[in-house]
Amino acid sequence: MTLLLEGKVIGPWVKEFDKAWRSLADSLGSRKLRVDLRDLTQMDADGRVILAEIYKTTGAEFLADTPMTRFFAEEAQKSGKEKV
């Protein structure tokens, strides 16, 4: 299952991201989650906290193809591991 993030995940969009993630988590079951960050242009600190929570909870795979999106993915993986 893939969660696709596009554009800016800032301000009110962080709340929408959180709602979408929580809704998806309920139906994930044993399926592996991928979070596609390739069309993401901006993400604030609150959004990055949610990414770390997703990684911590599911061990999701992140799809990233720019220095910025790779940074977000690596930061989420590092933060997700530290909080376990």
Structure report:
The protein is built from three helices and three strands, in the order E-H-E-H-E-H. By secondary structure, it is α/β, with parallel strands linked by helices. It has a single domain, classed as STAS domain (Transcription Regulator spoIIAA, 2-Layer Sandwich). Strands 1-2-3 form a three-stranded parallel sheet. Helix 1 runs parallel beside helix 2 and helix 2 (45-58) crosses helix 3. The longest helix has 17 residues, at 12-28. The chain is globular, with a radius of gyration of 12 Å. The termini are far apart.
**Poorly predicted ranges:** none
CATH superfamily: STAS domain
| Overall pLDDT confidence | 92
As for the CATH topology, it is Transcription Regulator spoIIAA
Annotation keywords:
globular, Transcription Regulator spoIIAA, single chain, 3-stranded parallel β-sheet, alpha/beta, 84 residues
Topology (SSEs and partners):
Elements: E1 2-9, H1 12-28, E2 34-43, H2 45-58, E3 61-63, H3 67-82
Parallel strand pairs: 1-2, 2-3
